Predict the structure.
Amino acid sequence: METKESLGYLKGLLDGLDLDEGKKETKAIRAIVDVLNNIVEDIDDMTEGVELLAQQLDAVDEDLADVEDYLLDEDEDDFDCDCCDCDDEYEEFELECPYCGEAFTVDEDTVLEGSTNCPNCGELLELEVELDDDCDCEDCDCEE
């Protein structure tokens, strides 16, 4: 039984008791029932407010997901240079460890750092790889 229904049942019981309305005890019981009624109304109002907030939060969450998708798509386009024919993709380099012979791939940032550890044997490898400077344009955001 819900709180509102329980309160209605309590009011019905109170009315069925045929209490003398002039007695202090009856007035106290009626005042308690009125307070309970006010509490039930406040709870109903808060429940409606929480449900409205939940709907608004869901809408904001969906909007945020759209923004995240848009930003992730933007990031993927950052490597494309539309103003010339240069290839501005992030390069990867395949290396072979001189100690164990294991072939592995490193990214451009690792090459620029100048050294890396072999993922197989753990030896520190000094990298001496020259990066291509193919881009001749002046207007793009290429890092060349």
Q: What stands out?
A: The beta strands are 92-96, 103-107, 115-117, 124-126. The mean pLDDT is 82. Residues 24-77 form the longest helix (54 residues).
